[in-house]
Amino acid sequence: MLTITMIITVSILSVAAMDVWQRLVHRLGGLPPTNWMMVGRWLLTSVNTHKIFGHQLQKITPYPNETMIGWVFHYLIGIVYVIAYTILWKNVGLLTPTFLDGLIFGVVSVVVPWFFFMPAMGAVVMGGKTQRPVVGCLSALGVHSVFGVAIALLLQLSQQYN
Question: Is residue 145 a contact partner of residue 17, using CB atoms and an 8 Å limit?
């Protein structure tokens, strides 16, 4: 049985791997990394208005600490993904903590940014309103693939300590 501490540790390390990958791709290819300030603004606006979609985030007055809130939200969502992976592994038997299953999980998990977060942030499904929607979708696919593999390999490593 995985402990809460182990789930949180795997979450933090796998999200950090995703963030490092995104920064590396940014440095090498110029693709801008996720703007966590805007994610924080979206989250705070959604909580305050009880509305998830339809915000014009660029026109909303910035909130105090919205960047930090966006980063914290990002890492909390990582915990949800690790719990989902763990359930699919331990309770359902659909996944194992292997590179291939991690890659599959990461690829499937990209539906969340494509079909929820991009529309919620005003970019519509699969970033259709952005300047380079295909690049944005491929970037999300890449970082989520790295994230899924990191989750799997870290869960595999955690088994050595249980």
Answer: no
Average pLDDT score over the chain: 93
72-110 pLDDT, tens digit per residue, is 999 999 999 999 999 999 999 999 999 999 999 999 999
Q: What is the mean pLDDT of residues 23-46?
A: 90
Is 91 inside a domain boundary? Answer: yes
Ramachandran area for residue 127 (φ above 0: left; ψ -120 to 50: alpha; else beta) = left
Q: What is the C-alpha radius of gyration for the chain, rounded to an integer number of angstroms?
A: 16
* 104: in domain: yes
Taking Cα atoms as reference points, which of 105, 33, 43 lies closest to residue 72? 43
**In terms of residue numbers, what domain contains 75?**
13-22+67-162
Runs of H (alpha helix) within 30-117: 36-49, 66-86, 99-109, 111-112
In total, how many domains does the chain have? 1
Kindly tell me the burial class for residue 142, based on how many C-beta atoms sit within 10 Å of its own C-beta (0-12, 13-18, 19 or more). Answer: middle
Place of tokens 């699919």: 88
